[in-house]
Specification:
heterodimer, A: 198 residues, two-stranded antiparallel sheet, 9 helices, globular, B: alpha/beta, Oxidized Rhodanese, domain 1, five-stranded parallel beta sheet
Chain lengths: 198, 216
């Protein structure tokens, strides 16, 4: 039953090779989806191109269905999956900061690596800024340590938040995704008179 | 264009269908999860690898290096009659509330489940394994066996003494005169004053303990 103990199965070196392979595939797919281009990424926020929303949200929904179907069929122990714990207000503030950076720079951390890998200069600068930001955070977090550790909710997921069964939440998320694709596409046609470039 | 549109509609339809079927099918509860895990873990029960002797539990209770958690899954009446020192009473159906606690246990933690015999404790063991796979064991023979070994005859009616462990039925077979809970002497016997018992060590820790040298 997954999750698998890769180190136990393949040894340390083997498990690292698996991680590298997964990372390679992820980067390959991001690049082939066009996420190495900051113009396409920033266009999401102006609704002129919905590639990011459609690709990422579809990937999320497919992965979610695979995870929970695997759990339902006894192939995966969902409780053994690492789910990031929630610190509510630090998460909100961090998300806002990242959102501003995303719109200004046209990249998120992952896509800046993809862009750097294809030798785009703006991606390199964004990555450099990202590293500087991480270092700056590390050196200054002591001044806002209390806030950073505040509003801790533990492993807190949507089914717990809404008091609904996991399967129902999954269905609602899928419906939300499809509604967003349709809704944002409608806004796009309203504003720009066209859909996504093919 | 029409083909692409049809493909998108098909894709959306498939996602909705998969999500709808998942909502109907549901996620496994603890019992169903155990059924999935049984091929891998049931042998531990069949080979009695997780049943520990009362002497081993007593040793764990006196070991300061180990984080010992004792779950007592009996009813409140039996709990009030007698229970082990530092045990936590928890009903079988409430075990899922222990998920966060079990996940926070250190690598030096050992969980032991006790019931009057082994019936309830074994059910609880399966549920805890499905819940969090802790380093969990069952008191062999339950508290009936514990009291056979460490019980004080004067605490029981008519000096009852050793109870038969044959044909376990989940009942406490030591009729105590007073419901003293953990205040009976048998709740935490003095390990140095009880007769030596040989046993096969079953408990293994997830991490080696670096014990300080000293008088042992």
């Amino acid at each position: 039953m997954a999750p698998l103990d890769l180190t136990g199965m393949f040894g340390v070196t083997g498990s690292y090779l698996v991680y590298i392979g997964i990372g390679f595939c992820f980067g390959f797919i991001l690049e082939s989806s066009g996420f190495g281009d900051s113009r396409r990424l920033a266009a999401q926020f102006y609704f002129s191109e919905l590639r990011v929303l459609k690709v990422m949200f579809t990937a999320i929904v497919v992965a979610m269905l695979l995870v929970f179907w695997a759990s339902a069929l006894g192939l995966l122990d969902y409780d053994e999956l690492m789910v990031k714990h929630t610190w509510l207000w630090p998460g909100i503030v961090g998300g806002l900061i990242m959102g501003v950076g995303f719109i200004l720079g046209g990249y998120c951390p992952g896509t800046s690596l993809v862009s750097t890998a294809t030798l785009k200069i703006d991606g390199m600068f964004f990555l450099f800024g990202h590293i500087v930001g991480v270092l700056a955070f590390g050196e200054t977090v002591g001044y806002f340590y209390e806030f950073w550790n505040s509003s801790y909710l533990g492993r807190f997921t949507l089914p717990e938040l809404f008091g609904l069964e996991t399967g129902v939440v999954v269905l609602l998320v899928v419906c939300l995704a499809l509604a967003m694709f349709l809704g944002f596409g409608w806004i796009q046609r309203l504003v720009y008179g066209r859909g996504d470039p093919q | 264009m029409k083909a692409l549109f049809n493909l998108r509609v098909l894709g959306a339809g498939l996602l909705l269908a998969a999500a709808g079927a998942l909502a109907v099918h549901g996620q496994p509860d603890l019992d169903r999860k155990w059924a999935f895990m049984a091929p891998e873990y049931a042998s531990r029960l069949e080979n009695r690898e997780v049943y520990i002797d009362p002497a081993e539990l007593l040793h764990l209770m006196n070991d300061d290096y180990i984080e010992l958690v004792i779950y007592d899954v009996r009813n409140e009446r039996d709990w009030n009659m007698f229970h082990l020192v530092d045990a936590d009473r928890i009903a079988l159906e409430d075990l899922s509330s222990q998920r966060d606690r079990l996940r926070a246990l250190s690598e030096l933690a050992v969980v032991v489940i006790v019931s009057n015999d082994e019936i309830l404790a074994t059910q609880a063991w399966k549920r805890l394994m499905a819940l969090a796979k802790p380093n969990v064991y069952i008191l062999e023979g339950g508290l009936n066996h514990w009291l056979n070994v460490y019980g004080v005859v004067d605490d029981e009616h008519e000096g009852h003494g050793a109870a038969s462990l044959a044909k376990p039925d989940g009942t406490l077979r030591h009729p105590f005169k007073l419901a003293l809970g953990a205040r009976h002497a048998a709740a935490q016997p003095d390990e140095h004053r009880t007769p030596d018992r040989s046993y096969t060590t079953r408990v293994t820790l997830l991490k080696k303990v670096a014990r300080a040298a000293g008088c042992e």
